[in-house]
Amino acid sequence: MAALNIQQGATSHSAYDLRDPNSQIEESHTLAVLVDNEAGVLARVIGLFSGRGYNIDSLTVAEVDHSGHRSRITIVTRGTPSVIEQIKAQLGRIVPVHEVHDLTVEGRSVERELGLFKVRGQGEKRVEALRIAEIFRANVVDLTLESFVFEMTGTSEKLDAFADLMRPLGLIDLARTGVAALSRGA
Fold first, then answer.
1. Residue 179 belongs to a domain with what CATH number?
2. Among 69, 75, 111, 139, which one is most buried in terms of CB atoms within 10 A?
3. Are 96 and 125 in a shared domain?
4. Mind listing the pLDDT tens digit for each residue in 77-103?
5. Which Pfam families does the UniProt entry name for this protein (predicted)?
6. In a domain, 21, yes or no
7. Mind listing the pLDDT tens digit for each residue in 4-36?
8. Is pTM, for the whole model, over 0.85?
């Protein structure tokens, strides 16, 4: 039986680690895409991501121009700078897409997300959940003797932090809208 000798300080690479060691670091980007509000457009945009193996961290869609029948798709995705550029270029080539903006690189932007958190609580845990909700400025939108539903708007990181604190107190369920974002200024 042959023994494998690995010297201290040497690195071994797995055959399953296919990442390029010289590749750029992945970054999170928020993309705002203005599209025609018609059947199949969202499926085409999502198909671009899934067909190329890109992940979507957050997705929101709503009509923003009723008379022009236009919707805004806000997508949060991750990738190297070259992958993000490729995504933007490919989105721009989809026919019903009118504009693609990378809010992460175009300047300062405002990003918010709405979250609903259902928390079971009685006794001290109930009091603690209400205290934390007050600190985070979360509103109670439903209340029973056994649980609360809190509503909170803020950054994704703020919602993550609130959920992390509510888990040991009895977080039962949560729903999040995904990021809505606009560039700041004129």
1. 3.30.70.1150
2. 75
3. no
4. 999 999 999 999 999 998 899 999 999
5. ACT_AHAS_ss, ALS_ss_C
6. no
7. 433 334 444 444 545 555 557 989 999 999 999
8. no
